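Notes to self, Flavin reductase domain protein, FMN-binding protein:
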Amino acid sequence: MSKISLGAKTLAAPTPAWLVGTYDATNRPNLATIAWGGVCCSDPPAVAISLRKSRHSYDAITARKAFTINVPSEQFVREADYVGIVSGRDTDKFAATRLTPVGSTLVDAPYVAEFPLVLECRLIHTIEIGIHTQFIGEIVDVKAAEEILNAEGLPDGELVRPIVYDPGTRNYFGLGKILGKGFVIGKELRTESGGTSGQE
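result:
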């Protein structure tokens, strides 16, 4: 398949549509929608998110050394977008979206009661990259609604129904159909090629 060069752009798609929960300097709970984020370590379990210094949440994370990752289901796509287009400096985003803040007892940050999946994070590293700063948070707990858990007690993507974001088109998407089971579907090729087990 031939390729066309598009230049150096942030077009890795899709990205998550996560809402980051913090307390600002006045102790008001706030939310910021981010797309630059993902899991970055297994042990300790950690996620990385990137924010510009101009964002209201930047100072909150720096001061409180904590944040939450709130994973909205598809029904909250309007709220997720709204949170990303207004500033917490002059807007109470929880009030405007009618979402409910819940104070974490583990980290100095709030989370969203209505969202099915929440990660409570303690800031462990701050990395200056360029116009964005990367905050790495150790996950100290995951909170999940019972109705999104599978038989093994783990969050199921079909039940969470998370939102993903395409930076190129600026469109939000839901998850599509299941294509195969991880660490299973690829075994067919391993058998055919005679490859060994393990991960890169």
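- The radius of gyration is 18 Å.
- The CA atoms of residues 102 and 184 lie 39 Å apart.
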